[in-house]
Design a protein that fits this description.
Rossmann fold, three-stranded antiparallel sheet, 226 residues, eight-stranded mixed sheet, 11 strands, single chain, binds 5-O-phosphono-beta-D-ribofuranosylamine, alpha/beta
Length: 226
């Protein structure tokens, strides 16, 4: 009896970044330590100065720097990114701190195979400044979510989340510091579910095993799901 990765081959993923790349590093570390059976075929970055590029180069992963400034429109830039991903036959596109909105032509083309990490408990606080907005609202907890990417900003079905309490002493920096390591775990644990073919998306619906996922998976702080 073949195991799932033998049956399907290793899942091929492309990771899109814009900045520090700490989430990319978490994925690379997990692959290198044997925790994640993923083939990162390419890193695409839209900013030539992004620190995260160094992590890809150190791991010998192909890098494409596709600067948005070099294109006349969002659609033309998206198209250049899409072409590279298709050449590589990426089965999963992971937006890990990719700070560009992808247009509808891209999201339609890569529907059911693009995921994004977002620093809030979606559907709360789509867009930017999520910690400040949670603090401003007096929320008692915050967290991070991984969702399927659709044409609406941070609006696709939510796959998984991790939560932390907000303390009275917290500010946006302390929340970001506490949540950062948990975001990394959430990304690795969620991508692992894709690698094992336990999670997949079909026709805009997330399936967990053979069931439609009706609630996001909640991750414990040790990386397991409940
Ligand atoms: C993370 O906080 C993520 O939630 C947000 O952008 C940040 C990415 O950081 N979308 P990094 O580039 O992976 O270090």
């Amino acid at each position: 009896m073949k195991n799932t990765s033998e049956k399907h081959g290793k899942l091929k993923a492309a990771v899109l970044i814009s900045g520090t790349g700490s989430n990319l590093k978490a994925l690379i570390d997990a692959v290198q330590s044997g925790k994640l059976d993923l083939d990162i075929v390419r890193v695409v970055c839209n900013r030539a100065q992004a620190g995260g590029i160094a992590y890809a180069r150190a791991a010998d992963i192909a890098v494409s720097i596709i600067s948005h400034n070099a294109y006349g429109s969002r659609q033309a830039h998206d198209e250049a990114v899409a072409r590279v991903l298709e050449q590589d036959q990426a089965e999963l596109v992971i937006l890990a701190g990719y700070m560009r909105i992808l247009g509808e032509a891209f999201t339609t083309r890569f529907t059911d195979r693009t995921i994004n990490l977002h620093p809030s408990l979606l559907p709360l606080y789509k867009g930017l400044n999520t910690y400040a907005r949670a603090l401003q609202a007096g929320d008692r907890e915050t967290g991070a979510s991984i969702h399927m990417v659709t044409s609406g900003l941070d609006a696709g079905p939510v796959i998984s989340q991790v939560r932390i309490p907000i303390r009275t002493s917290d500010d946006a920096t302390s929340l970001s510091n506490r949540l950062g390591p948990l975001e990394h775990k959430l990304l690795v644990a969620t991508v692992d579910q894709f690698c094992k073919r336990k999670i997949r998306s079909e026709s805009g619906r997330v399936l967990y095993g053979s069931q439609v996922l009706s609630q996001p998976l909640q991750m414990n702080h040790d990386g397991s799901f409940r």
